[in-house]
Amino acid sequence: MRKRIITISREFGSGGHTIGNAVAEKLGITCYDRELLEKIAEGTGFSREFIESAAEDSTASHSLLFNMVVNRSLQLRNEPTPADTVFFAQMEIIRKIAEKEECVIVGRCSDYILRERKDCLNVFIYADEQDREKRILQRYGENEKPVKKRIADKDSRRKTYYSHYTDRLCGMPQNYHICLNSSALGEESCIDIICRIFREVENETA
Amino acid sequence: MRKRIITISREFGSGGHTIGNAVAEKLGITCYDRELLEKIAEGTGFSREFIESAAEDSTASHSLLFNMVVNRSLQLRNEPTPADTVFFAQMEIIRKIAEKEECVIVGRCSDYILRERKDCLNVFIYADEQDREKRILQRYGENEKPVKKRIADKDSRRKTYYSHYTDRLCGMPQNYHICLNSSALGEESCIDIICRIFREVENETA
What we know:
Number of domains of chain A: 1
CATH class of chain A: Alpha Beta
Structural class of chain A: alpha/beta
Largest interface: A-B, 29 and 29 residues
Number of helices of chain A: 10
Shape of chain A: globular
Distance between the termini of chain A: 7 Å
Oligomer: homodimer
CATH architecture of chain A: 3-Layer(aba) Sandwich
């Protein structure tokens, strides 16, 4: 089936954000990244800051599914947390966007949320440690935390969040159709590869 | 730097073997797969059967490096096991081949063995569960073990072997430059992507 949607999951500092935007520009389609945040803010009434921090909430020790099953067996009500409300809203918004138009969606578990669709190309962008550090310092500058610690913290928070809502392990190749090391291949090559595959791959098993 | 070598790591039943051979044919270079087995057999005197089983030895509970450090601290001699002898021989043979000629090398921890070289493109091929089962039954037929169990056993043995000799986790994207899901992309697309990258990517950071 012809691909219509590209989801880009990425490591912090891997250039995934830039690659996603460039791919969308090259293909002449919208890239949902900051725009998605705006839509979720509109839909839920939460601030963008809260929505951003909810996506890196490391306090969730079990998966959402696990909590729901336990609560049900204890005959407790499944009260959604504010982070859950954000997730459910983003799930609905991402599904609507995918239905409506060809686009690139960066992050926000979009690979998982759209897992039933056959017209998605799920991409994971990662990079070598040194390269991530360099990119983070260039983009966000120094702060009180050493850059290695910033990467470790962000990785850990993203992993917890992803596992909580998807019951999958974050960053495993099996979640994606293609994984690209932007340090080894270069951002330009990553952009080219994704655009070509998007237009060329028509495989019924996808 | 221009790439000269392609290492293909793969899941059992993912089509990595076929893809490796097709890539080599398309590029007009040698694919070392069975040929490597012959060379290791010649170099060590072990039978091909033993060499094949050594590459899936699940009895090694710690990494080779860990064992060496412990033995040294206990003032024990580091006696290589037959499996170690095979690994050291294959390490030497793979390094010599990489020095000598442009080629594709399938499996045998070649991504790790050649990790210091800047002219390698390290590829990981994986596939969806159902597709792996189908390919295994087509290629090797039924046997007394259910196909799901055959996959689980093989995955487990390969993981143990890889971790033992490399001190890395098998199948993590970070070990490779590109990971391709052959179910989603199709074998032909995987072959095309690898050939193009091999000829096109010239990135000093690789």
